[in-house]
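Exam revision sheet. Question 4 asks you to relate a sequence to its structure. Input first:
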Amino acid sequence: MDGSGRTGRVLVTGATGTVGRRIVREALRTGATVATLGRRAPGAPVAMHFSWNAVTGEVPMAAVAWSPGTVIHAAAMTDVDECEDDPDLARRVNAGGTAQIADLARRCGARLLNLSTDAVFDGRRGQYGDGEVPNPVNAYGRSKLEGEVEARAAAGSLTVRFNVVASERLTAWILDSAATSRPIRVFTDVCFNPVEAGELAGLLLTLCASDLTGVCHVGSDETVSKAEYAERLIRYADLGAQARVERVRLADVLMRAPRPLNTSLLVSDGVLELAPMPNLDRAVRKLALAYSCSDPDGQRVAT
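Answer key, structure tokens:
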């Protein structure tokens, strides 16, 4: 990215989330002028922050007037069980919010990059291509699929489907539990091919600068179960001696929202022409190293 053209002036929604925070950091590193849109301002030194709540308000005119060349829509309601408990709220955030952002991009003539999910598929077999018909099994997946439809209102938009791992959330729970010998129940039959969040952010910015439109898939070079991911992470963090891993099947655990079993994605040809496929093993080693380099107060190395 450079300081001019459509990618030089970037507006990011969801900039305090797992992916959004890293997008902002990477965009700033490349020299882009960055503004954010959402309920909370990020800690990063961005040019502007515009307050916006997808449920209770409309996109402020000041954000339109800022005239971004690129809009990256990372804001979403992502807790699968909360979406199942309140599908109307999930729809208002993930579909209605995306409609607002698509309208913003359309009014600015901006390139829209809409972040979606592998959860739009039913998970019956995995290895889904970007041309296959989605069939979500829960409210979260349905609301994100509706958001994909809304994103099309912005000409030239690109929706990116993926799964992500980062130093927080699933990874932190696994490693914190292993370090303290708490039970770790992980699924042997729930499979994915996630991309590490920092690497994903860089790839998303590459996609912003590309001519790809429609829908594309991003994923790592390896499909693993959640149990395999946990065990490898624990091994690389050298926590195997105290870890208490319990391998279970999805059917053995009562969950509020249905979960798809295998949502692994085939990386789109257009993506592979722009960047190499992310290596999952390298990502797991990176996350394990970040954990082992935590300071005494438990603050992990940023990844």
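Marking note for examiners. The chain has one domain: 9-225+253-292.
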